[in-house]
Model the fold of this input.
Amino acid sequence: MFILPAVIVVGWILSWWGARRVRWILLSAAGVVSVLCVVIGWQAMGPPADPRTVNCSSTWACTDPGSLYLVAAGLLGFGCCLVLLILAILGEAMVIWRRRRISD
Done:
């Protein structure tokens, strides 16, 4: 479940040594992959089982745990992308500010 967010964070950190375009392409691709994980996991769940007919404590307990992990990884990855997007905007603003300050 934490593999996708970890890969996103490591790739984002490494992208700061590359071109600016690489960072934005990486964040965009990671966001798309995260959304696809949520959609595929949600579709893989199928219809929820009725807890009264199956020996489950709740509807979520009757769901395949593999699809729940996929949905959780996608949501966590998407949240990670949003946080890194804000950090990237702030980081690039600081870089631009420093460049203007040094050139003045």
